[in-house]
């Protein structure tokens, strides 16, 4: 998608749970950089801005294992 193409999305009332930052091509959510509003990306939504105006996110499918890994790393660092 060219940088000049505008992104569309549906306004969300709050930040979605269990998401992580990603590239634009994998994203399902976006946060507008200046307004801090959250959107679910959707071709049928309203225009929310250019890719340069947004940070992109997706569901974090590894959230559970990543947390366990982080806990194990912290545990080993104490030894």
Written description of the protein model:
The protein is an alpha+beta fold and 79 residues long. It has one domain. It has one helix at 63-77; strands at 7-12, 19-21, 29-32, 38-41, 46-49, 54-59. A 6-stranded antiparallel beta sheet has the order 2-6-3-4-1-5, with no helix packed on it. The longest helix is centred in the last third of the chain and has 15 residues, at 63-77. It starts with 6 loop residues before the first strand and ends with a helix.
What key phrases describe this protein's structure?
elongated, 6-stranded antiparallel β-sheet, 79 residues, alpha+beta
- Structural Rg: 16 Å
Order of helices and strands: EEEEEEH
Number of strands: 6
Mean pLDDT: 85
Low-confidence stretches: none
Total individual domains: 1
Helix fraction, binned, reads: 10-25%
Largest sheet: 6 strands, antiparallel
Give the overall shape: elongated
**Span between N and C termini?**
48 Å
Structural class, from secondary structure content? Answer: alpha+beta
How many separate helices?
Answer: 1
What's a concise summary of this model?
The chain is of the alpha+beta class and 79 residues long.
List the helices and strands and how they pair.
Layout: E1 7-12, E2 19-21, E3 29-32, E4 38-41, E5 46-49, E6 54-59, H1 63-77
């Amino acid at each position: 998608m060219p940088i000049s193409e505008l992104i569309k999305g549906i306004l969300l009332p709050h930040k979605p749970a269990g998401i992580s930052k990603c590239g634009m091509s994998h994203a399902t959510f976006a946060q507008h950089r200046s307004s801090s509003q959250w959107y679910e990306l959707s071709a049928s939504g309203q225009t929310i801005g250019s890719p340069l105006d947004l940070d992109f996110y997706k569901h974090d499918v590894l959230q559970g294992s990543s947390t366990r890994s982080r806990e194990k790393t912290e545990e080993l660092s104490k030894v």
